[in-house]
């Protein structure tokens, strides 16, 4: 198989053997690390999602694919472009979390990498975070924004409840919120949730849009 196909297969098959050798070969051929993630590995995860969704792949195998994806991203991370030499973290702070009840964190961790590499200080709280933990971290770190990720349909409801809690606590004006994850749509966030939230709430389709939004919010 061509290298690209091979890498994609490794994600789909959850096959770690030979992974780093293939990644190094792709890097040596001059492919940017982020492009390998976005164009090849994420394509593999998409296939995994389709197979799982249609009942042709069982959960333990999805987990193996997720592990391969994580090791690949960890291997590629040092090769990703940094925005400034110092590794800055001076542009602003975002508190980032996967919402309550949701364990999916590959997308969130990509957002962390992209923002950190572009000069933001990211306080990554991890998965299954109750709103109280997110809001406390935002206050403690004097965050400029809050980022919430969630992939389950029920997480879209949790996100709405979280925004209502920010309203209730009178925090909405101080915290712009960026939402991302496969179950969301732009319309749900920028129309429905926009109606709900008394502050600014925006939808990020991918990690790069998350970065563009942070740049716009902080400017
Ligand atoms: Co789960 N899972 N899963 N799963 N899983 C989905 C989400 C699902 C769509 C699969 C399917 O049915 N086709 C489905 C949800 C259906 C629904 O809600 N209607 C599903 C299900 C059902 C479940 C379980 C309930 C299964 C079960 O137990 N029976 C269970 C849930 C457990 C829980 O959360 N309580 C479960 C478990 C798991 C694993 C643990 C096995 C594993 C996760 C491992 C991990 O993350 N550590 C897993 C995986 C891997 C998936 C799929 C296959 C792939 C997700 C992924 O990592 N994609 C997924 C299928 C799918 O998404 N279509 C699926 C790659 C990742 C980079 O994409 O996170 O979307 P994503 O991030 C993108 C953008 O969304 C965006 O940027 C990224 C790209 O740049 N983004 C942000 C994300 N967050 C952002 C935040 C931002 C900005 C952008 O700013 C704050």
TrEMBL record:
What are the TM regions of this chain, as residue ranges?
A: none
**Positions contributing to methylcob(III)alamin binding:** 101-105, 149, 207
- Domain B12-binding N-terminal: start-end pairs: 1-88
Sequence ranges assigned to domain B12-binding in this UniProt record = 91-219
The organism's taxonomy opens as:
Bacteria, Bacillati, Actinomycetota, Actinomycetes, Kitasatosporales
| Full-sequence portion shown in this chain | 638 to 856 of 1175
* Organism listed in the record: Streptomyces olivoverticillatus
Q: Would you tell me the protein name for this molecule? A: Methionine synthase
Concerning its family, UniProt says:
Belongs to the vitamin-B12 dependent methionine synthase family.
Q: What is known of its domains?
A: Modular enzyme with four functionally distinct domains. The isolated Hcy-binding domain catalyzes methyl transfer from free methylcobalamin to homocysteine. The Hcy-binding domain in association with the pterin-binding domain catalyzes the methylation of cob(I)alamin by methyltetrahydrofolate and the methylation of homocysteine. The B12-binding domain binds the cofactor. The AdoMet activation domain binds S-adenosyl-L-methionine. Under aerobic conditions cob(I)alamin can be converted to inactive cob(II)alamin.
The organism's place on the tree of life at top rank? Bacteria
| Role this protein plays | Catalyzes the transfer of a methyl group from methyl-cobalamin to homocysteine, yielding enzyme-bound cob(I)alamin and methionine. Subsequently, remethylates the cofactor using methyltetrahydrofolate.
């Amino acid at each position: 198989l061509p290298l690209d196909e091979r890498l994609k297969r490794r994600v789909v098959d959850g096959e770690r053997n030979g992974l780093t050798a293939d990644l190094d070969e792709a890097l040596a051929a001059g492919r940017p690390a982020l492009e390998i993630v976005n164009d090849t590995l994420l394509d593999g995860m998409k296939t995994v999602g389709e197979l799982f969704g249609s009942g042709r792949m069982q959960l333990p195998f999805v987990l193996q694919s997720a592990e391969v994806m994580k090791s690949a991203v960890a291997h590629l991370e040092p090769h990703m472009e940094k925005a400034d030499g110092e590794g800055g973290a001076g542009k602003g702070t975002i508190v980032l979390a996967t919402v309550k009840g949701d364990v999916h964190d590959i997308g969130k961790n990509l957002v962390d990498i992209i923002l950190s590499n572009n000069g933001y200080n990211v306080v990554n709280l991890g998965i299954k975070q109750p709103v109280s933990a997110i809001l406390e971290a935002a206050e403690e770190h004097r965050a400029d924004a809050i980022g919430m990720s969630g992939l389950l349909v029920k997480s879209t409801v949790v996100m709405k409840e979280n925004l209502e809690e920010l309203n209730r606590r009178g925090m909405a004006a101080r915290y712009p919120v960026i939402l991302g994850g496969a179950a969301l749509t732009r319309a749900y966030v920028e129309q429905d949730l926009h109606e709900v939230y008394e502050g600014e709430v925006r939808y990020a389709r991918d990690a790069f849009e998350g970065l563009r939004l942070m740049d716009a919010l902080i400017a």
